[in-house]
Design a protein that fits this description.
Beta-Lactamase, alpha+beta, about 45% helix, 4 domains
Amino acid sequence: MIVFFLKCYNYLSRMPNMSEKSANSRLFDALASLNQIGATVNQIGQDGKVSVEDTLKLIVASAIQVLQGASAVIYSYDDTLGEFIVASRVTAGVLDKGELSDAPRPYGLGFRAIKQRRRVLSYEEKGTNIHPARVMAGARVMGCFPLIVADIPVGALYVYLQDEREFSQLELLMLDNFVNQAAMAIYHAHNLEKMQRNLARKEEEIKRMRRAGLLISSRLRLEETLEAILQMALEVTGAQYGIFRLLDQKAKTLNTKAVAGEYTARPLIEALPLDSNSVMAWVARERQSVCIADLHADPWSHIYYPLDSSLEMRSELAVPLVGATGRLEGVLNLESPIVGAFSEEDSFLLQALATQAVITIQEVRLLDALEEITHLLLTESLQKVLIHLSARACDLLDAATSAIWNLKGDVLEVVAESGGYQHGERIPVEGSLAGLAIMERKPVISEDVRVDKRFHRSDLAVDQDWARALIVPLLPGDAGKPLGAFGVYSSTSGAGHFAESEWDKKVLVTLADYAVLAYQNAAHQDALRAAQEQRSVAETFAAVGDIASNLLHHLNNKVGTIPVRIQGIEDKCQDVLGANPYLAHNLDEIEHCATDAMESVRESLSHLRPIKREPVLVVSRVLEAISLVKMTPTAEVKINQLDHLPVVMAGERTLTLVFTNLIENALDAMNGKGVITISGSADNDWVEVRVSDNGPGIAPELHEHIFDLNYSGRGVSRPGKLGFGLWWVKTLMTRLEGNVSIQSDGAHGTTFVLRMPIVKPNGQAKE
């Protein structure tokens, strides 16, 4: 600006007949015009006060003030189209009232100025004339100044003189500066208009997405939600037809879930194989969006699969439904009979709607799974619930396998799995990924368990081709003792990216919470069942005890008089008995049998009386039971870790009877040949004794009935045995406030697990 001021001042001061005062006045007017134009340009778009048209009017008005008796016109120029925008014409001056048709000619001075990026003066150009409309209006001289910003033409300024003269250097200098101001004004205005259009479009997109969110949240069924999303996609893109296809992971097909549009015939909605020759299958395989301007063009014309065979579609827009973990859910497809119907912005909008669809699909799938699991919690056993949770985790998280561990001391035992791990397999808490999740009480992620030193079974990971892992602890509340861990593993070729998806963590934590509920529900059911059994046993034994007491009373009255009567016979008939040894011997046998019978009845009925619970050593009861059992020469009993077991609360004779029954049952199962192992362990509250044999085992489906009163696994009962020894075992353990369970796969022996409460320091059983 300073340089411009000095040039103007020097030029004016050298002009003939130009006084210093006149020169200063002309210079002041020029600077005032430039200042006003600059201020106007800076205010373009501010609070809507000044428009581009107003700014251009000010520029041309200022131009004719510098050139008295002149007229000026500005046209905007579209560089992408290579043509002037006739509607943008702004004019001022004596030669034009706005009615002239002086649109730039294809080979006129305006296009020449734009092409050559310089000002063009009519008296300097040969072979090109002033526009005829301007000549008729009285124009004799014309100057065209291109409006250029960053080498991009945005318009042109035309200045017309009525006099047959050349532009002065001052006039040209002033016009050059006007041109720079006008170029910046147009460029600035166009950017503002573009920004305003983009902002308006984004606001509309946000409104539509908000509306889509409201529609999605108001639908209960997945099909209804997908139909709402599809209808929204048709509205925002202007498409006429659309279809939702979801991927069937097992069948590897794309199955139709929603269709929209006015079809003339029945739309083709049959399942599409993932490897089929179609646009949607290609998008699913490549997991890549595609916007096809013309379906008649190669290569799309060879793989296009019509939605309606009676309609000719010319353009297509398809996006894959891919979750945060990389799992493919399906494809959203739109079509139109118009060539080039979809833009890049439409593709972005459709991808946003596809994301909404993925979220909906994942939420619906999770809700369905939780509803199913809730039903199982009320109707199925703990083991079946855990197996179902394990399978569902693989389905929801697109994992190759999963496992649920139960925490037992310092080891973790697999209680449910869906491939990879074996049921009953044990791993240590220390030095394992699952153990780390338990100790830290938070989810643990591994990017590659094959090389992760925290993973205990790297050999299994390599063999099963596992890569990523996500493991969460089973926590019953914030301060509760962990029950175990729940883990999922993805294969190297799988899509699961647990480290990148918070959704996967939330899903697995939710499933883990349901696993905890299953454990707690099973514990409550067991406690309730035990209480009911204990009450039932108590009531039964009370009734049987009354009957037994009455029976013992009658037997004592009848059988108990036999020894007394025999003694009376011996006193009164000594001579006869002395003369008949046979009679004397039989009377002695009758007396002994009657006495033994009464003693046997009293001993047997003693088990029906209330048990006197007292501190008892397990090892002594086991040894006594072994001494009472008639062992065969081919059978052996081994004892492990019983000497150091804590004292338990039980009845001596009752606990001996329990072990006697279990040993006899094992001998019978092994046909008298084999090894019986009795081992023990303890925690803070309970002693656990395991009685194992190496017989043929008991089938898992019989485990729930093995302790029934009327159950007998023998084909023929042994002579002298009633066949309900295991019922006695369970009944007596219930009366001792303990429990018994069975472990067997039906092929490799059987183990009976006895749990009894430890004695407290005050002599009572721990709760």
